[in-house]
## 1
Amino acid sequence: MQPKNNLFLQALAGQSVNRPPVWMMRQAGRYLPDFMKLKAKYDFFTRCQTPELAAEITVMPIDQIGPDAAILFSDILVVLQAMNIQVEMKDGIGPWLPKPIQSQADLQQVIVPEVEEALDYVFGGIDITLEKLENRVPLIGFAGSPWTLLCYAVQGQGSKTFDKAKAFCFEQPTLAHELLQKITDTTIAYLKKKAKHGVHAVQIFDSWGGLLSPDDYQNFSWPYIQQIVNALKEQISVIVFGKGCWFALREMSQSGAAALGIDWTCSAENARYLSGGNITLQGNYDPSRLLAPIPTITQDVHKMIRAFGKDRYIVNLGHGILPNIPVSHAKAFVEAVKNYKE
Amino acid sequence: MQPKNNLFLQALAGQSVNRPPVWMMRQAGRYLPDFMKLKAKYDFFTRCQTPELAAEITVMPIDQIGPDAAILFSDILVVLQAMNIQVEMKDGIGPWLPKPIQSQADLQQVIVPEVEEALDYVFGGIDITLEKLENRVPLIGFAGSPWTLLCYAVQGQGSKTFDKAKAFCFEQPTLAHELLQKITDTTIAYLKKKAKHGVHAVQIFDSWGGLLSPDDYQNFSWPYIQQIVNALKEQISVIVFGKGCWFALREMSQSGAAALGIDWTCSAENARYLSGGNITLQGNYDPSRLLAPIPTITQDVHKMIRAFGKDRYIVNLGHGILPNIPVSHAKAFVEAVKNYKE
């Protein structure tokens, strides 16, 4: 059954719409006071791993901000946990992996799990979320790209350069490709199961793809995303978002993905040109610009829609919403899209 | 008098060469054991502000690694200090500004100094460095771009997003432009004086330009770099390096700059296309790839020279060398260029 508000799926299908749909990456997050109340009570992975909590958080922005799609509250790193890689979340540090992958022996401990069992809480979260949404808007599922997950699995924590992860790939490419394939196989099974549980689309986040040169991207990131798109595209629409990956938009546009995410350093004009002009694009408001005064936000959003065109376009930020954004500004962003007139 | 090894200046002038020149951003830095010995004895700003030390550090890689140009050891933040903005360097944090610029009142404390006096230690460092170099290779002077310096002046420390700095620009654009102009005026006087003291070229580092959208870049960064290029270009060759600023290469190529720095996410082919094909380009090896085995580095460098072409090209990294690079790998990078045969 189609959601009552079907704009997002229409845009993904390339259908003409009166106005583009809008949602925001990390819209169920730390800028919402009600989220912060739950954050004070439950630690990070408790929030991810308790279906009722994940569902409550997912639906929060739908009630409070009004975007045209929900995205399941979770984290890209739950896939690594399911693969027998320990992941913790440390205050002031972020993700922390006590035993990063450095050798063949480490890699042998990494499994391709039965996702139904290992990630059952995610699928349970989808079931409850769909109930709570009462078919108002579509629900998006997501996963990190294999390269982006390798970054954490090898580096062991966040990094500006992920130089250890890159060194691993450059020094031991065979091991790197083996790890990437295991992540890919797990991710395909994971996203297929999400689709089966009823999410309406999936997005692949290649958050660290833009740290690679175009050659290294074609070696260590893109082929694995392409495998995922190939495995999923007949079953569900796939959105590929590679932050900083303007240089790969041509390959992405020919991949079978339904839409491509664009960051704010790539103008609408460049994005349409580089992606060939026929694929739905999603983005690309600078998340920091949500700190600008509301009238500026409204004006910017209308300018952005005119630049991308209202069709084959999904309004979004160019990366996740920042924790210090006033709720009124996030709401103004969504409202500006709803008020858009050609 | 021309330096004995004049390859770098020939490439800047667009002259044909047998092989391209090579140097590395941050080549006088933390990957060198002798630098680490000085680091253990003298704090950061002592190293910058003691002409003998700055000169010793500047010449270190010339003796130990053999690049075709030296770059004066200093820091972009000394310009803010000269403008009456307090800058400290904190262990584990990096740059730390106790009183970031947030208001008109803060801005009124910011001066455009007499650089000869306020930054005399830099000019003293140039004099001693030129003596130590004995005319072996050219000496490069540098400055941060006004936008990049504003980032620190307003944010008060390093940041992944520099969201406070951006919010300042979006909320108080008049103040932002006033600060940018003060930095620009100081930088022009500073670089002119460097040229007078005998540096052979200057590079402007727009390290955080790539955090801006193309529109914001044209508003808050590019016009000030253009002012600097206009003021300097008759006197000395100017290299502009905007990390992540592939989207502005067209404007940069028409600015009067002698060369443009390219990061590793922009392929040689894209860089030549976007910059119009006639300007000298500098870059763009991924600094993390210096962790690859030496034969890989050698092969990569030769491939990179073939991709950019040997003329109108200066071999460099796409950003500063990382502290964890083995000296032998840095040396292999330089050697690979010297051994290049068409």
## 2
Amino acid sequence: MTGRQRSWWGWGWTDQALSDEECAAVAAGLPGLSGTPRPVPSLADLPLRGPRVAAPSSLAGCVSETPEERIRHTYGKAYRDVVRALSGDLAAAPDLVACPRAERDVVDVLDWASSAGIAVVPFGGGSSVVGGVEYRGDAYAGAVSLDLTMLDRVLEVDPVGRAARIQAGVLGPALEDQLRPAGLTLRHFPQSFEFSTLGGWLATRSGGHYATLLTHIDDLVESMRVVTPVGISESLRVPGSGAGPSPDRLFLGSEGTLGVITEAWMRLQDRPRFKASASVRFGSFDDAVAAVRAIAQAGLHPANCRLLDPGESALSGASSGSVLVLGVESGHAPVDARLAELVALAGDHGGRPGDVAGADSAAATWRSAFLRMPYVRDGLARMGAIVETFETACTWDRFPGLYRAVRAEVGAAIERVTGAPGTVNCRFTHVYPDGPAPYFTVLAAGRRGAEVAMWDEIKAAASEVLGRHGATITHHHAVGRDHRPGYDRQRPAPFAAALRAAKAALDPAGVLNPGVLLDPV
Amino acid sequence: MTGRQRSWWGWGWTDQALSDEECAAVAAGLPGLSGTPRPVPSLADLPLRGPRVAAPSSLAGCVSETPEERIRHTYGKAYRDVVRALSGDLAAAPDLVACPRAERDVVDVLDWASSAGIAVVPFGGGSSVVGGVEYRGDAYAGAVSLDLTMLDRVLEVDPVGRAARIQAGVLGPALEDQLRPAGLTLRHFPQSFEFSTLGGWLATRSGGHYATLLTHIDDLVESMRVVTPVGISESLRVPGSGAGPSPDRLFLGSEGTLGVITEAWMRLQDRPRFKASASVRFGSFDDAVAAVRAIAQAGLHPANCRLLDPGESALSGASSGSVLVLGVESGHAPVDARLAELVALAGDHGGRPGDVAGADSAAATWRSAFLRMPYVRDGLARMGAIVETFETACTWDRFPGLYRAVRAEVGAAIERVTGAPGTVNCRFTHVYPDGPAPYFTVLAAGRRGAEVAMWDEIKAAASEVLGRHGATITHHHAVGRDHRPGYDRQRPAPFAAALRAAKAALDPAGVLNPGVLLDPV
């Protein structure tokens, strides 16, 4: 990996980005796009105002004010971030970037920022797609991006209890590398895995790519250590407790507004030794949904249970019709019987098995498209396409109505906004006994220079449909700043009052990630 | 069940209480106890001060001030409650008992209490063993026990998503009776099941008697409706969400200090159709612990996985040596192969299988003793015995040291306090991949009139050992008032500040269950 460079404007590695020719090729199927990709500006040419604040000399060793560092910490990786970066809009750049080398530096940054009235935006891998790492406004003396990726070590492994004490700034691959010698794994693989951190997963209640059982990072936490402006909160490391409301559950999902997570004891698992996967095809999407519900309620706990609707299936090249990708794994015993049971259950609902054993081709095709998708998204964005996703969760009884309404109403919004029809596809990323987590992909031709505004209007329509159908504003993308209106509608008012009070108690100066979850004080 | 009467001073039904002869018989094995049981006072003879407050006429229909109702709501069902009731100590009796017939009554009671400065103690089945339902002190104009058991209906069943909207005051058996016609079950069976309510389980983060996977009520919640003094908090009913810190997790474990839970959408399961159980005997307790750890980490999810140490095993009549009771069940597929796998895993660690199939005698003996135990406890209490339990959870690496220390130090405390050796036994009630939930039973001869003080001293020693060994002050008995010192030590200070702030926001007059979790304002 040495020498590989992260993209400052788009997803992942620069050497994985689409070439101009590839951009044009992926856009060829979408009418209304210009023939040439928007150029990627040179970092050195980008206009950037000077920093409005300076760090005290005690922090000089861990603070940078170089334009490159500031630009790299301006945005997350949402579609609207990519477009704004490509257009050279860097008004939201932080004044400084702090990279703590130890927890003590985090304490010092919060002390300084609290006393100087400077906004602090915690920054892990920077993969937010909801405006979670971008301070908006000018109510503070300045803004500091607090990059935690130097806190990247597994500090302690307990092989008896299968747990590890891990620094929050570690990226997914480095985390797994450090656990591998012990034969253990956190087994949490969100799509952003390569470019997101443990602390980011915890702060946003991340969902891994496993479809059932241990999907949310929430359930993998034994204890957390959080630096707040009023002191360090460290919960007791126990397998279970009924001692009052869970301290960890207050910080899980707090998105940097209540404190900065610096360490956590995480529950680990034995590395899987047995794996099997299969795909099942359905002529009817309704039948496929019924099959997935039966599977989710049968207690078989497949590792993967991803349903692609006909549009998503065609887009990923996996197949025509609806495709269900099933995967089973275990660190202890062969899983073939369980896979057969799952395929049989799907068969009861009209599913026709694909190739059951080993490397299933539809599953492999889909997985490769899955990992490639963010790079393709960037290529399409350069071509002027509107290409973004949103996700939710709802109970099974509400899904059919929600699916129809999203396709109809978001489709209508696309046509109203862009003047032409677009695509709205759906897959299930996670399934629960009581309902699925549908993930929608939107693809349409934008008008260059107006893409962000156009997307914002489409997204508002999408959020409105979700709210009206009793679906959550976000299953695993977090709230950030972009989901605030929908979140504010979803959140019970007394809980909002309690959260505001907790925030005031922990962050009296109101400097932590202002605008996320709550209005700035 | 018609005509059965609940005991006002002890556990459960009056017709299940031990006779005087049975009391003497169970105490026979314990030297130092008097030959005759303490008499049960007559309700009519008990001295009780008059109510200090009167309800407004608008609440007259749901408020009682009869001595019997007030006495029945004075205590929970801890050992120290039983002894105090038997001795006629009713100083803590509430002034009034309110029994809301609808949520509106709950709102009205909180409005009135907030404006009049009256403490409100939410009361479900009254099975608290930690002083959770007993207001202590005189800083309020009066105290009202808010009995929610008239809110006892399943309001709605969603068979598609397998969930139900349930009123919080329903007792366990009535809840299951209402779900049975739909073929569904909440499958949450704490030892107090017959005499505790859904709302109590939620407010205290109850653990059911299933040993693995879905043990805590927390994980069965889809959404909750909570009446707070500043409004009703109702969370969105979805299978999963990443939208900020979970509102439900703030109220779970809040023990009536932040609001009164009136309804919840609960996740249900198909009723089990296949069951199998077995017992396994071990010559060495350490081997048995190793076997249980291997089982907990193998992903086999037994419904029961109860390990009894030699003392507990002898006491329950199950066997000599250490006994592991294993149970497996499913609503979908036969479970015999899984049971065989579990027994084999135990065998790898030196376990000798008992009778594997069907009604295993050790398991049956133990289960019957389990359900009978609270009545026996009451009988022993009438004989002057000190008989109580405490429970915790810790990581696997800490368990051996904790077990030794608890037996040694609590044993020493018993000898110091009572002047004679007592018994300290242990079983595992729940096991997790990262550690067990050990449950300790203490039995010793007390001195009549001093039992509560003696127990308090023994309990303080126990709590001190738990804290020193990094074990939680409570796994499923909650905090209440009795666990406050240990809880205050366990709880991170910044979280305590956040909780106090949340409490002040939701309960500005500070009337909700004062003294539980937090000091009264």
